[in-house]
Design brief:
Layout lengths: L22 H14 L1 H24 L7 H5 L3 H21 L3 H7 L3 H36 L10 H25 L2 H21 L4 H7 L1 H4 L10 H28 L4
Helix pairs in contact: 1-2, 1-6, 2-4, 2-6, 4-6, 4-7, 4-8, 6-7, 7-8, 7-11, 8-9
């Protein structure tokens, strides 16, 4: 009588490493989250509508000789730049307010990769807002030309670069406050109130006048609405962004990486 024995298949020498999702894939997920949530969706719609309303008002009330592509483009940056930080805040805090952080960080244990994807998504949304302003300005210029306005297409390309810097910076400032506070209402209120308080103090308190020229983003970002920015203005902008963007981002990143998820 012969006994037949079977031997289990030998296990592979090297187990296949579990493939991590790429940064591009994580960014695509974060972009989808911006649209999937009701607040994010309506905020994006509002950004587009605001740009259209600004151009429409200019077509109705601005003198014909001022209805140019550059004049349609620049004014739309301010209200959009006011809304983009809120989008940046919501992109970060939604994980905690909707209690999805546990699921997200379980699927992607390295939190810094998730945060990096969120920041890239915010930057892409900011750049998309610039393209939206360009498109709406182009429509406004065409309408102006057809109705007897100036309809000038003259445009300095540096103005586009400065607009991108402005929108990306404001969106990332919002993301920084979101990372630091991890609470949507609190982060939005602090973002809206704190710069206003600092601007008022810088205007009223004489010893703070000089400091405000370096730390008040309302002042340091103002040159970005022109085609030419001097070296001194870039330095002031860099210092103000170091305080209002880099510091909250770094502090918020450390807090998020260390915070216990429940």
């Amino acid at each position: 009588m012969t006994t037949v024995t079977t031997t289990p298949e030998a296990a592979p020498a090297h187990r296949r490493a579990e493939q991590r999702p790429s940064l591009a894939r994580l960014t695509a997920v974060e972009l989808r989250k911006l649209v999937d949530t009701r607040a994010g969706r309506w905020l994006l719609i509002t950004i587009g509508l605001v740009s259209a309303v600004i151009v429409t008002l200019q077509l109705v009330y601005a003198p014909d000789d001022e209805q140019t592509f550059a004049n349609f483009f620049t004014p739309s940056l301010v209200p959009v730049g006011f809304l983009l930080p809120v989008l940046g805040i919501l992109s970060i805090t939604s994980e905690w307010s909707q209690r999805t952080a546990l699921t997200t960080f379980a699927l992607v244990p390295r939190r810094e990769r998730v945060i990096a994807a969120k920041l890239v998504a915010v930057v892409l949304a900011a750049l998309a807002s610039v393209l939206t302003s360009l498109a709406v300005a182009a429509v406004g210029t065409l309408v102006s030309s057809a109705t007897g306005g100036a309809g000038s297409w003259q445009f300095d390309r540096m103005l586009l670069v400065h607009a991108a810097v402005f929108q990306v910076a404001t969106a990332l400032i919002g993301a920084g406050f979101g990372l630091l506070l991890l609470h949507s209402p609190l982060a939005i209120v602090v973002y809206l109130v704190l710069p206003i308080v600092w601007s008022v103090l810088g205007e009223l308190v004489r010893p703070l006048h000089r400091v405000a020229g370096w730390l008040d983003t309302n002042l340091t970002m103002e040159p970005l609405f022109t085609a030419e920015v001097t070296a001194g203005q870039w330095r002031r902008l860099a210092v103000s962004l170091l305080v209002w963007l880099v510091v909250p981002l770094v502090a918020g990143l450390v807090r998020t990486l260390r915070r216990e998820v429940t």
